Amino acid sequence: MPIAVSDFGLLVRETRNMAKPLLSDELWALIEPVLPKWTPSPKGGQPRLADRKALTGILFVLKTGMPWEDLPYEMGCGCGMTCWRRLRDWQQDGTWLKVHKILLDRLRGADQIDWSRALIDSSFVRAAYGGEATGPSPVDRSKPGSKHHVLTDAHGIPLASSVTAANVNDITQLAPLFNAIPEVAGKVGHSKRKPDALQGDLAYDSEPHRQGLRELGVEPILPEKQIDDQEGLGETRWPVERTLSWTHQNRRLRIRYERRPDIHQAFLTLACIKICASLLFSGFC
Questions:
Q1: pTM
Q2: In this predicted model, which residue has the larger pLDDT, 140 or 159?
Q3: Does the structural domain 114-258 have CATH classification 2.60.40?
Q4: Where are the domains of the chain?
Q5: Strand locations in 74-217, DSSP E?
């Protein structure tokens, strides 16, 4: 039996209501005030694509992994290169880090950040077209690749992230990621940025780093090769592995297609933003 036009319209509306939005109203309300203001040219020109539509297009590419030029026109998000330029400009402006900090402030205000320990880990991704911050992967027959490094709280909330070449040792990112933890507000009194302890696997075995953490008042939980057994560490370290799995639910991060590392870093930070927003507004990712 054919579907009437009125029934088809109702079906479309119901489907839209069931689908999870790429950019929720709650998240947009946090992002919009942070975006740099645009001043129209006095000479006029083509109307500028609305920021919310551009961000929706960016999130669609991040989620699906599709090429920029294949971004569907029917979505109303402009052309792919317009969204790419907006992603580039906002990355250069520091917009994504500002949004990430705002979400961390909200999470701390809701008592969702566990500062009892921080967790650090990394994962490999293949780099399809090479580019900066890529190198021969030690786990993929020396093919060009990159690493995603993430530092989280004890529950897996991402606090900082970075992109490096695949052949970069994990320990080199411990200090940069630790120093990249923002001053998290959200409560009355001083901001918080230092966990009580920092835990990693055997890839982070380094006595100088242990000593440096102790001098900062942070307990190092970094096993020593040929001395410590990692058995049992997985019971407390698994949240950071889950967070890396969550980031790779975004198909654009499963394989690195960007030759520019700043664009790939923007996608990684956006994935961390999505995780924080999901935990803040929904209670799960």
A1: 0.89
A2: 159
A3: no
A4: 114-258
A5: 118-127, 135-136, 144-152, 158-165, 197-199
